Amino acid sequence: MKGGLLWITVGLGCAGLIAAAALMPVSGAGRSRPVGESPRTSAAGSTLPSLATEVEAIPPRPTEPPLIVTEPAATPRGMAWIPGGEFRMGSDWPGEENPDRIKPDETPAHDVALDGYWMDETEVTNRQFAEFVRMTKYVTFAEKEVTAEELARSGLDPALFRNKTVKPGSMCFNPAFSGKALVLQQEKVPLWEYEVWKYVDGASWRHPDGPESTIEDRMDHPVVHVSWEDAVAYCRWAGKELPTEAQWEYAARGGRQNEKYPWGAEREPRGEYQCNYWQGMFPAQRLNLDGYQGTAPVKSFPANGYGLYEMSGNVWEWCADYFDDQYYAVSPKRNPQGPSQSHDSREPHIIKRVTRGGSFLCNVNSCTGYRCAARMAAEFNSGTFHTGFRCVVNPTRRAEFDKAQGRIDEWRRNAAETESQ
Fold first, then answer.
1. Which of 151, 193, 159 is nearest to 4 (CA)?
2. Does domain 69-138+222-420 have CATH number 3.90.1580.10?
3. What would the pLDDT profile of 150-192 be if each residue is shown by its tens digit?
4. Which terminal residue of the chain has fewer beta carbons within 10 Å of its beta carbon, N or C?
């Protein structure tokens, strides 16, 4: 990622890494009224005397339409219908004992009601993103030289970057860090996790580990090194949207109520790994018992109850919402769209969006982002080697989706004809 002078990490969540690259070495009381009942009637139906002089009249609440539950059109290829419903979002604070490393920003637990929608079965892959780039000639944030003006958009003071050049690139894992030293530092050095990262010139979605790497053998892996704006650009091309944070969590739960993981209450039921995460004590011990050291191809692990893959682990996924660590206390119940602006108490000047789902770096002792309720904040104009996304289609915008897909199908036909000539 690129941005943020005072990077504060919680479980390897990413905030403020451009500055790390530029400034640091690379290495009402009352009952509800039934519908149709008048405010003041006797049992016999006669009107009672007005109480306007005693209590101000309370206007009846408008009746909300029922939730969209039944699928209103055919399921698009590669997507799954998520029927509307209600669920308990977030977590209750566990108290002093906190084995799941629940963070305050995922509290309080609160009731949410959502209309149904379609969601991608998988994270957007390199293959899918490559088609988008071929058709639109789009250039991602990581492929551009970063200017002071661009950094100012994320809330940074551009004066901090005068006479400094940040070459195109992105944040990658630092294989040269000392795991043993980091373990010793954890309780003493506030930003010890900095050493786990390094800014790599030339790293991008095409070159996820640096300029010498390739995606030729990773076409079915999730695309990474994409910023929030890169993800939104893809969504608009496809006639889709990023999911709201509420949509993301509801879908991740797969129809289960109050379960810790998309598949149930146990992390490894019957000893079987259900997602791609870091096994062993982070960062000194890396066991790779699930078979993947970095990203895994999509559909490597079982789908949840809605037919969605890798909603836990693999890569963090962008959501539409601004991040606000206090939003849950005021969130509306029906179809919450997130706060109107960003607020992270740790870095209030940096503009952030929500990411969900955890990644292959999440672990048992530092970051438990693979839980359904876990949240993370990330700068909107940044990307890393463990952040991707998936999309949704809302029924109210199905016509836009169909039009966009028609344009893409026409481009594919024309491209195929050109190649055959």
1. 151
2. yes
3. 878 888 887 777 777 789 999 898 877 766 655 555 555 555 5
4. C
